[in-house]
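Quick start: read one record
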Amino acid sequence: QVQLVESGGGLVQAGGSLRLSCAASGSFFSICDMGWYRQAPGKQRELVALLTSGGGTNYADSVKGRFTISRDNAKKTVYLEMTNLKSEDTAVYSCNAYKRFWYNYWGQGTQVTVSS
């Protein structure tokens, strides 16, 4: 019943742009902190961008100025706008909905590959 469905991944040339989307089912979306994570082969998963239910944001240093996280509560969707993509951005990107004590849900992940 509770589900996060991601879309927007693909193959992009370095310097290009891409928008990832994660659509949520259920009534939990508006009260959750939403985050985008990524994991490259052989590496730990890292937090890329976080958007709290109150509107605050946090970004990894490596993506500051290039990535933007946003949400549309009416559409129950969180976005990750990625610009000036670099080869080191290549990873599987996953969205997460989190509310302490109640929710910790993950999307299926979408592959982003940036060619140099």
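Residues 17 and 83 are 4 Å apart (CA to CA).
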